[in-house]
Amino acid sequence: MEENSIPRENLKDVLGRAVKDLRISVTDRCNFRCSYCMPLDKYEWINRREILTFEEITRLARLFVGMGVEEIRLTGGEPLLRHGLENLVIQLAGIKEVKDLSLTTNASLLREKAEALAKAGLKRINVSLDTVNPEKFQVMTRRNDLANVLEGLFAAKRLGLHPIKINSVIQRGVNEDDILDLVEFSRQNGFWLRFIEYMDVGNSNNWVSDKMVSKKEILDAINARHPLKEVGRHDASAPAVNYEFLDGIGNIGVIASVTEPFCIGCTRARLTADGKLVTCLFSDKGHDLKKLMRDGASDEDIGSFIRSVWGRRADRYSEERLEAMNSGEYQPNSRRKIEMISLGG
Ligand SMILES: C[S@@+](CC[C@H](N)C(=O)[O-])C[C@H]1O[C@@H](n2cnc3c(N)ncnc32)[C@H](O)[C@@H]1O
Ligand code: SF4
Predict the structure, then answer these.
(1) How far, in Å, is the centroid of ligand 1 from the Cα of 299?
(2) For position 26, what pLDDT does the model report?
(3) Cα 277 from Cα 271, distance rounded (Å)
(4) What is the pLDDT of residues 195-235, one digit of tens each?
(5) How far is CA 260 from the centre of its chain?
(6) What does the alpha-carbon distance between residue 245 and residue 253 come to, in Å, rounded to a whole number?
(7) How far is the CA of 194 from the centre of ligand 2 (A)?
(8) pLDDT tens for residues 291-343?
(9) What would the pLDDT profile of 96-106 be if each residue is shown by its tens digit?
(10) Index of the ligand 2 atom closest to the CA of residue 38
(11) Coil vs helix vs strand at 208
(12) 198 pocket-lining for ligand 2 (C-beta < 6 Å)
């Protein structure tokens, strides 16, 4: 159901960055325990009463769209664990100013849910997959689910949810020897592969820079087998730099937030499952929109609050991290950061 047009403004932060993308975490829970993201057995989960309802999420999404947001991505935790997610997709797909509505998932439940999501209006899917080796998969996620993930990927492909992007995080000593297998798998099946440099999100993954495999190392490994040419970013705010294979079969991208930070082009706002607005992946705090809503604030009041948070935004964490790493002063765990499962990647 399409709703009335939303009047639009062009909100900018202190560094002149607009708010164009909204990442919505629909749950902080996950059925995997990826070593780079959520390695611990137990977390302090958000109380279910504090999780935004689909109506609350849609209300906030419409306010963000009014401030310039054009792309919405659903994430988590594992978003497919959220019961009835397709009903949220229907509501968000009804906002006609949203040009792109997508989902990031570990795909373990995708086979069962892909059709309902596609019918609801989901446009694209990103699947996280760091190896196509079943034993390695078990070690990295602590779950024996590779077959389900692959079935989910192919179900989405059959439904025409194109392009399907695969996100792979590469860690030294863990899966750098899986880079070429991931490339072959993606080329053979028409998936768009995106490598993500291992980042120091949150504190529980105990990130150390030595474990991060750089964009240059990833490209060198691929180029030695399949020569590539750079085609650049899709647009100025896109995190990935894209490459095509010289033989014309497929493409890859690399998101190099550690070695080549792109803070200056960052137009992403994040909404946590309990309704906090977070302005950077490496933030230590969010700004509570749920409390405002549940205390009865009007759309105008919530809009003013969002405007004041974004208007004061000066985050450039990844650029600062690189400066500190270059001068040998970087201490990854020197301050608390919100965990990736709460933020939504
Ligand atoms: C937090 S997950 C949430 C969505 C879903 N559970 C999934 O795995 O796709 C979103 C993305 O963040 C990425 N991610 C998590 N921790 C990361 C880290 N330390 N460095 C780089 N990417 C990370 C994951 O690989 C995934 O692509
Ligand atoms: S990356 Fe996704 S699947 Fe893996 S633990 Fe984090 S939220 Fe779960």
Answers:
(1) 32
(2) 98
(3) 5
(4) 999 998 888 888 888 999 999 999 999 999 999 999 999 98
(5) 18
(6) 11
(7) 16
(8) 999 999 999 999 999 999 999 999 998 998 999 899 888 887 777 888 877 77
(9) 999 999 999 99
(10) 5
(11) coil
(12) no
